[in-house]
Amino acid sequence: MRLFSWIKKKWIGYTCYSIIFAVIMLYYLFPSEIFQNLLVLSAEKMVPTLDFSIKGVSPSFPSGLRLEQVGISKKGGENFDLFRADLLSFNVNIVSLIKKRYECLIISKAYGGDLTGNILFKSKTIKGPYDISMDFSDIDINKTALPLLFERQLEAILNGTATYSGEREKSFREGEGQADFIFTDVIVMLQQPIFGLEMVALDQVSLKTELKNRKLILKNIEFSGDIMKGSMTGSISLSSNIMMSRINLKAIIEPLEGLDPTIKMLIQNTLKGGKLSFSITGTIQAPQPNFT
Question: How far apart are CA 264 and CA 276, in angstroms?
């Protein structure tokens, strides 16, 4: 009996040693350059309209890959990255494989903050429908592609959550999703001066939105700063060219003590009950404010 127990412990020890040795050898002998090229080619085959770049690849314990300096840009388009991450780590959920579904956990360092979440493929292949859930922490908007896309100064720190359900064969706007975001230390350069204001600085902007039927529904936007506070609701009908998407927004602004006296005089006649109501139509590229 003691001999059997000794043999059992011995084989357990050998097994653990073999696993540890295999993991160490995998890390030291991991074919980084081969995997790097393979991942780029596979990604560009899946999404032929985009270019992908990766500076380094290594294993990520227990069942994934760690990518360094990841860049995604539009093929033949603007000369900047639509997305860039210092670190992007993927780990496959082993339990999901047993259930014949694919779930991938994501951890990323990007734009001075952190992105974490998961992707769940509902069928037995990654070509099927999928669900994405993401958490955003301290993302510096000024470091993203948004200021370049909108061709104006945009500054803010983003925190919040977002979910999305879609299919790889369909465009993003055909999916469904929700987002709950909070932006702090916001600075927005206006498309054109309004009542002498060329830029708006706000302490905080909270946003609740839903994507459905190719329309981004802005359920509620609340903002506040030294010069104003207010709210906004409406929708954006999404176009294949995002800048040509049609907007239909209604807003109410309450001027505060910090507003320049000259501007106060300009808007005095348009105030109702101490508040300014207006709508915004047109497109994202060329918004048209209408004061009522």
Answer: 11
What was the pLDDT predicted at 197? 78
For 55-76, what is the mean pLDDT?
79
279 dihedral zone (left: phi>0; alpha: psi -120 to 50; beta): beta
Grouping H, G, I as helix, E, B as strand and the rest as coil, residue 21 is helix
Residues 45, 180: Cα–Cα separation, whole Å: 33
Mean pLDDT of 195-214: 89
Closest to 40 measured CA to CA, from 67, 22, 59? 67
pLDDT of residue 237: 94
Give Cα 71 distance to the centre of its chain: 14
Beta bridge partners of 286: none
What's the CA dihedral at 140, 225, 258, 266 to 10 degrees? 100
**Six-digit token pair at 189?**
């350069």
Give me the pLDDT at residue 160, please.
97
| Short-list 154, 85, 91, 80, CA closest to 115 | 85
pLDDT at 208 over 90: yes
- Long-range pairs, 113-116, Cβ under 8 A, ≥24: 113/137, 113/138, 113/139, 113/140, 113/157, 113/158, 114/138, 115/85, 115/139
Q: Are 253 and 205 in contact (CB under 8 A)?
A: no
User: Could you tell me the pTM of the whole model?
Assistant: 0.80
Distance CA 219, CA 177 (A): 13
Neighbouring C-beta atoms of residue 236, cutoff 10 Å:
20
